[in-house]
Amino acid sequence: MPTLAYAKDDVRQLVIDTATEALSVALLDDGRVIASHHEIAGRGHAEKLMPIIAAMENGGRADEIIANHGPGSFTGVRVGLAAARALAYAWGVPLRAYGSLSLIASMARKQDMPAGNESLSSDIIVTMNGGHGEIFWQIFDRLTLFPKTQPTSTAIAELAGQGHKGPFYGTAALTLVEAQGYGDATHIHPDARAFTDLPVHLIHADVMPLYGRGADAIPIDQRPQKQKEK
């Protein structure tokens, strides 16, 4: 099992995670969490995020910023990346990103270890609420945490019919288990404090948002006639 994580010694890092219902921030120093905030806020990320960071030691000032770039809610992804980009520019520090599904996979593997399940041969299947009756999902190798599939957004009924055995982890795990009628579900939200266990291969230099599906808004010229007339 790989142990190399991206939390660095002798470097202060600010981790921002607002892509889901969770509003999660962690300040790391020498690979240790020295300040954090984690709540299942649902809404209000934009109003709460910067005051939370400002209240941390030295205003949360760090040598590097890492942000969750999705998939997740359009608003949540944009809020986190906008704040991360602004701070990285103001402080003149590098910015990197990780995925929601990757962090949950890392958290799931660590959570299984105390129960003696770290040697499970099954893959880690991460599922997350995607909205509009869809689920974001991705499969990871349990031993290495290397992705075996790409992040995908699939209708709940369609995914339930694909016959995945699980176990399932994430915010949509129970939804999927209930839809297909079998499997084990573990509910997990992304948590910035868990970044210390995230393997280095799950960190990206590409900080473009990963929305995972099409935009909610439909351009006027593509809307049905009845919608145009409203």
What does this structure look like?
This protein is of the alpha/beta class and 230 residues long. The protein has two domains: 103 residues, 2-Layer Sandwich (Nucleotidyltransferase, domain 5), CATH 3.30.420; 86 residues, Nucleotidyltransferase, domain 5 (2-Layer Sandwich). 26% of the residues lie in helices and 25% in strands. The chain is built from six helices and eleven strands. The strands form two sheets. A six-stranded mixed sheet has the order 3-2-1-4-5-11. A hairpin with a 4-residue loop joins strand 1 and strand 2. Helix 1 packs parallel to helix 2. The longest helix has 18 residues. It is globular and about 50 Å long.
Q: What can be said about this structure in brief?
A:
The protein is of the alpha/beta class and about 230 residues long.
Strand order of the largest sheet: 3-2-1-4-5-11
Q: In which range does the helix fraction lie?
A: 25-40%
Distance between the termini: 57 Å
- Proper CATH architecture of the largest domain: 2-Layer Sandwich
What is the tally of helical segments? 6
CATH names the topology of the largest domain as Nucleotidyltransferase, domain 5
Q: What does the radius of gyration come to?
A: 18 Å
Percentage beta strand: 15-25%
